[in-house]
Amino acid sequence: MSKFWTFLTALHSGAGPLVMLVYPLYASVVAMESTTKLILQSLLEWIPIWYSVKLVFVAWLVLPQFHGAAFIYNRVVREQFKKHGVFGSSFHTKHSKPNIIQSIFHREGHEAHSH
């Protein structure tokens, strides 16, 4: 039985580097060698303003002045959730739903002061 545990320990110690090093290395090489990226890149090179459009789109998404990510969430993601019933019957509109974090902290603060 001790040989089994020795084998299991050796297998366990070798599995970590295998999963954390070898597989990501393999996946990276496969991704670099795939022809899909080369074909897509050659198609995008024909669009002269592609990288500028991509930069403007990402800036619109992440900069807080534009609220781009909130717009995408409200117009696309949230609508799909509502359409497929992910929110269920407890879904409220943006204006009528309470702020859950504020209600939790208010409740905890109220309980702390009442004692």
TrEMBL record:
PANTHER family xref list: HVA22-LIKE PROTEIN D, HVA22-LIKE PROTEINS
Organism of this sequence: Brassica napus (Rape)
Location in the cell: Membrane
Membrane-spanning segments: 51-73
Keywords: Membrane, Transmembrane, Transmembrane helix
Main location group: membrane
Membrane association type: Multi-pass membrane protein
Keyword Transmembrane helix set for record: yes
Gene that this sequence comes from: BnaA01g14320D
GO cellular component: membrane
The family this protein is said to belong to: Belongs to the DP1 family.
Name the UniProt record assigns to this protein: HVA22-like protein
Pfam short name (any one): TB2_DP1_HVA22
InterPro entries the UniProt entry points to: TB2_DP1_HVA22
